[in-house]
Amino acid sequence: MKFARILILGLMAASIAHAQTPPRVSVPAAVVPSKAGQLQLDYQSLYQREVDKNKELKGQVATLTERLNQMTRPGGSLVQAYCESPTVSRNTAGASNDCAKNGFGCEPVSGLCRTSARSSDECAAGYIYCATNGGCVRDADACH
């Protein structure tokens, strides 16, 4: 039992000593020895590195901004349609289409104007579903 207490005390002392050991620090490349043998930072070198890195990042931002502009312009690969309202289709490039002029509503999954319908719910206000042609008409007389 006495041996176990000594062992536990020894382990505790070792862990405390290990916890107080300072971490090793790497010296940056912009550190130069001074006349007195002490290390000093070369601030001009550090500043120039940051200026160069900033120029590189600005160039990357300009390149990425141009790529984004090309993708989101009309006809670009990231232009997406969405239903601005139940009868208006709009895309992220700013173009819009009034679906109601043809009697249809906007299809929420694609964001485009419907070109056919399966019920009056898919027609614009004031139009009804015509099962004969799968379209939307103003009144039953127009359904042939």
Concise structural overview:
This protein is of the alpha+beta class and about 140 residues long.
Mean pLDDT: 81
Strand order of the largest sheet: 3-4-5
Given the structure, what is the number of helices?
2
In percent, how helical is the residue content? 25-40%
Give the N-to-C terminal Cα separation: 103 Å
Using only CA atoms, what is the Rg? Answer: 36 Å
Beta-strand content bin: 15-25%
Give the strand tally: 7
- What's the order of the H and E elements? HEEHEEEEE
Question: Main sheet, how many strands, which sense, barrel?
Answer: 3 strands, antiparallel
Low-confidence stretches at least 5 residues in length (pLDDT < 50)? none
The general outline is rod-shaped
Helix/strand class: alpha+beta
Write up this protein:
There is one protein chain. The chain is of the alpha+beta class. It has a domain at 81-142. Helix content is 33%, strand content 17%. The protein is built from two helices and seven strands. It has helices at residues 2-19, 43-72, and strands at 31-33, 39-41, 81-85, 88-91, 96-98, 128-130, 135-137. A three-stranded antiparallel beta sheet has the order 3-4-5, with no helix packed on it. β6 (128-130) and β7 (135-137) form a beta hairpin. The chain starts with a helix and ends in a 7-residue tail after the last strand. The model has no long low-confidence stretch (mean pLDDT 81).
Main features:
single chain; 144 residues; alpha+beta
Mind sketching the topology for me?
Blueprint: H1 2-19, E1 31-33, E2 39-41, H2 43-72, E3 81-85, E4 88-91, E5 96-98, E6 128-130, E7 135-137
Antiparallel strand pairs: 1-2, 3-4, 4-5, 6-7
